Amino acid sequence: LAQRGQATASAGMDPIPCFSSLLVFTKSVSHGLGLPAISPCPPQLSPLTRPLHFSNDGSKGTEKRLHRFGFRKRRRFFMGASKKWRAFASTDEFLSQTPSLPHCGQTSTVSVAAPSTNGRNGSYSGKKMVSVRASNEQLLAFEYELDKLVLQVDNDDEREQFKREMDSFKNLYVRWRESGKDGTEPLDWRKIGTPGVIPYDAISGQCSKPFGITEYDESSGSTNGFTKDSELVMDPETVERVRQEDRKLLDKLVVVKLNGGLGTTMGCVGPKSAIEVRTDLTFLDLTVRQIQGLNRYFGTNVPLVLMNSFNTDDETAKMIQRYKRGVQIRTFRQKRFPRIMKDSHMPLPETPWDPSTCWYPPGHGDVFDSFCKSDTFQALRDAGKEYVFISNIDNLGATVDLNIARYLASNPECEFLMEVTDRLRSDVKGGTLIDYEGRLRLLELAQVPHSKRDDFSSIKKFTIFNTNNLWVRLDALQQRVEELNLDIIVNPKTTADGANVLQLETAAGAAVLHFKNPVAVNVPRCRFLPVKNTSDLFVVQSNLYSLEHNCLRLSPKRVQLAGPASIPVVKLGEHFHTVRDYMERFQTIPDILELDHLTVSGDVTFGANVNLKGTVIVVANHGDRIDIPSGSVLENKVVTGNLRILDH
Predict the structure, then answer these.
(1) Whether residue 163 has pLDDT greater than 60
(2) Where is 359: in which H helix or E strand?
(3) What is the spatial distance between Cα 534 and Cα 579, in angstroms, rounded to a whole number?
């Protein structure tokens, strides 16, 4: 390149660009790749070239890099004197087929003039220099960082798997860069409307027998998929016929539980599904027992599939060994993406083996692509499975519902069904369903402009809430998985060493926009019992619920007092943040059948057999402590100050 530049400059001609790409080599990088070092361009080129220099953000020192410029799909390079353009699939291919790079000594960088196009014929002129935008520079630098990670994996199979993950992350990153810093196209707030939602009662029909939650209770009206009334009017032959129909339907069903989360938000180590929630049973225990009961009664074989993350995969493999009968358990692992630095937008990890804090699972929206590309998916399709029910493993209300399964089976034009429920004041973090330009669309809190956050929080304007209980036809999923460009959620995080990073995530419910004839069903609140923190754990462990058939059932007394959708708002302070602290501060879980609102802040403990009613607020200021005595009844009370009770 330097020789060509000198020759053309000395002849009074413009330097002919040798590549359509800027290549910045350093001694360390070029030697690491087995390439000769390259010298700077001669001074004669400086008036006509635009040297582009890149520097890191300083957090990793002056790291040496190779940057390339070209076209997004396939890189195109000008091949010397042949004056022909050739497409290369990657930089690796380019380097392997162009080994004779000019060797001009030991130095740092080379700058190359980029050609421009004139007219539609695609001719190139060396006189006109292309102005390369900083965004393109950063994108290509980012791509190289990913390539460098891939090249460090020695095993061929592992490298191919890792490369697929990095390619997927690169596509997500490019979409994020194109859509703006918020990760999604801005919505015109005036076009947001109320979506059309099917009431659950409209799809409720005759089912052969209740399983999972419990039989129909007249006081609550909750069926969760079955009605006891229907059994009262069906003769034995009809019951058996319906049961056989249900069995055939269940033979086509797959249950997928999202099991990628850790229990760190509740102070626990390992998968969140290992946390005990009721009578020494974990989330995973309850899920497995529900499917076992289903298969045992209907004589079917509904498989349970767990989507693990790199954080939960190994531990989950050990946990599922204890379940020997009644359910076939399969697993697949979702992708592992690198966190990116907030200021430079470059990948945080330097090697594929960097600590787990440098990586993250990209949200539950990854379930579709990772599931379809797993060996598990093809095995299930070969076994004749046609439908999948997807839900969070920490949603204790997400059981198989035959009414919804029947609706999906009897409406073949519907490819995607989302369960929504009436929104409560406590439903803050999560998404709602909207109508936008005549189509159903998920709206997450992270996508809402700050100026509209108050509107989004209004339960009058946005009346329904996404449960993340999703039903999808497997043939439609297989057909559309490559087209699922889900809205991107930018999740800022701070690492343990104080680094500010970003995670690019997607939500599974956003897929509602990409399927034909999607449907939303407004289900009873009993199908949405998420446990995200110790405040939620307090509610599900209380006498507000009872455990029947390995599922939670709202107390009939509570239904009589406040209605089937009335759940108290509970806010436990930082002293209750971890499960361990939470358990130490309650001798027994209080009676909350008549509770509307509970706020606890500061150093507070509760004795045994405490009864809370109405609105109760307990605040211990800094340095104070409040011990609620055993047997206390607090109704519409505010407790402050200092109250110590010691054993004599």
Answers:
(1) yes
(2) strand 359-360
(3) 6
Catalytic residues: 532
The residues pairing with 570 across neighbouring beta strands, listed in sequence order, are: 598
pTM score over 0.85: no
Q: pLDDT category, 205, cuts 50, 70, 90? A: low
| Average pLDDT score over residue span 37-57 | 35
DSSP 366: G
Q: Give the type of residue at 517.
A: N
Q: How far apart are CA 384 and CA 248, in angstroms?
A: 11
Alpha helices in 524-578 (DSSP H): 534-541, 556-562
CA–CA separation, 468 and 112 (whole Å): 51
Which of 504, 420, 494, 500 shows the shortest CA–CA distance to 462?
Answer: 420
- Long-range pairs, 601-609, Cβ under 8 A, ≥24: 601/573, 602/573, 602/575, 602/626, 603/575, 604/573, 604/575, 604/628, 607/631, 607/632, 607/645
Cβ neighbours around 284 below 10 Å, total: 24
Do 476 and 516 meet the contact criterion of CB atoms below 8 Å apart?
A: yes
pLDDT digits (tens, 9 = 90+) for 257-270: 999 998 888 888 88
What is the DSSP secondary structure assignment for residue 566, as one 8-state letter? -
CA distance 82 to 4: 13
> Which residues touch 233 (CB under 8 Å, ≥6 apart)?
none
Q: Tell me the DSSP string of 440-496.
A: EEEEEGGGS-GGGHHHHH-TTTS-EEEEEEEEEEHHHHHHHGGG--PPEEEEEEE-T
Q: Please provide the size of the chain in residues.
A: 648
Confidence label for 561 from pLDDT (cuts 50, 70 and 90) = confident
Q: Which residues contact 478 (CB under 8 A, 6 or more apart)?
A: 372, 377, 381
Per-residue pLDDT of 484-503, as tens digits, reads 999 999 999 998 888 999 99
Query: In which residue are the tokens 């974990």 written?
Result: 282
Helix (DSSP H) and strand (DSSP E) numbers for the chain: 18, 30
Proportion of the chain in helix, strand, coil states, percent, rounded to 5: 35, 25, 45
Separation CA 442–CA 513 (nearest Å): 8
Task: Give the residue-averaged pLDDT of 564-589.
Answer: 92
Distance CA 128, CA 531 (A): 61
Type of residue at 441:
R
Predicted pLDDT at 7: 43
- For 69-98, write each residue's pLDDT tens digit: 333 333 333 333 333 444 445 555 544 554
Expressed in angstroms, the distance from the first to the final Cα of the chain is: 90
Return left, alpha or beta for 122; rule: phi > 0 is left, psi -120 to 50 is alpha, else beta.
left
Q: Which residues of 73-99 are buried (b: 16+ CB within 10 A; e: fewer)?
A: eebbbbeeeeeeeeebeebeebbeeee
**Nearest CA-CA partner of 282 in 254, 303, 312:** 312
Q: What is the CA radius of gyration of the chain?
A: 30
Rounded CA separation 335/504 (Å): 12
d(CA 201, CA 142): 52
* 111: phi then psi, degrees, rounded to nearest 5: -110, 135
Instruction: Give residue 56's pLDDT.
Output: 36
Please name the residue that has the structure tokens 């086509």.
252
